[in-house]
Amino acid sequence: MPNGPLSLPARLCLLAWDTDPTRAAPVVRAGALADLARRGLLVDDDGIATPRDLDSRTGDPALDGLLELVSESFPHRWRTWVTLHARYTLDAVREHLVAEGVLRAEKHRILGVFPSVDHVLADTARADALREEARRILSGSAAAEEVSATTATVLTLATAAGLPLGADDTPPTGFLSARASETSPAFAAVLDELRTALRDTAPTPSLPRGR
């Protein structure tokens, strides 16, 4: 997957760009949970997402915000966290992408009174590259050794959420999930919980860009 420095939730935010925010929020949140789990900062405790260390931080504002939320909240299962206050994570990821120059925030007022912000895709080349790489992998055009565990995780979650990625053939979900967890067997159970939660999330109609 191109542009490696982007976090898991940031990649998913760009792949979900043409979808309604209510549909994008759960998959972006799932990406953040997966990212924290892969880093070892959230661990699975009999199905409960549990912080390993209350003082750990990643330096990524969206990931650290979620880690703090989980740390300060009543314990919940992974599936619950996929949707619980998921819009907070989506907003944090968008703000971080604005800071990175990938998105542009355009401020305006609704009815000339209420302040609002529209996010516009500024770095279209990066988003297009992510989508093209996803299409190649999901269509089977990419060699297996080209697919990293991180990229496999992104695409496992994207396909579970039903994101329109342009692949005509049936995506190799079994291969992707196995690839995602091959370097961390404990991650397999977490990924399965996140996939199930995303599949249970009802899709909503798409909105145009620049919403």
Automatic annotation (TrEMBL):
InterPro entries: GPP34-like (IPR008628), GPP34-like_sf (IPR038261)
One Pfam family of this chain: GPP34
Keyword S-adenosyl-L-methionine tagged: no
Span of the signal peptide: none
Keyword terms: Golgi apparatus, Lipid-binding, Membrane
Subcellular localization, as worded in the UniProt entry: Golgi apparatus membrane
Bilayer topology term: Peripheral membrane protein
Main location group: Golgi
Name the UniProt record assigns to this protein: GPP34 family phosphoprotein
Organism of derivation: Streptomyces tendae
